[in-house]
Amino acid sequence: MNIRFLETFIWVARLRSFSSAADKLCTTQAAVSNRIATLEKDLGVRLFDRDLRNVSLTPSGERALAQAEAIVRLAADLRLGVGDPHRLRGRIAIGTIDTIVYAWLPRLVENVKSTYPEVDLDLTVDNSLTVARMLLEGQVDLALIAGPVLAPGCRNIELCSYACVWVASPRLGLHGRKLMLEDLTGQPIFAFSRGSQPHQNVLKLMESSGLDHHMVRILNSNSLATITRLVRDGMGVAVLPDVVVEEMLGRKELVLLDVGALIPPLNLHAVFREDPGSSLPGLIAHMAAEIAAGERDPTDAAMHTD
Question: How confident is the model at residue 275 (pLDDT cuts 50, 70, 90)?
Answer without folding.
Answer: low
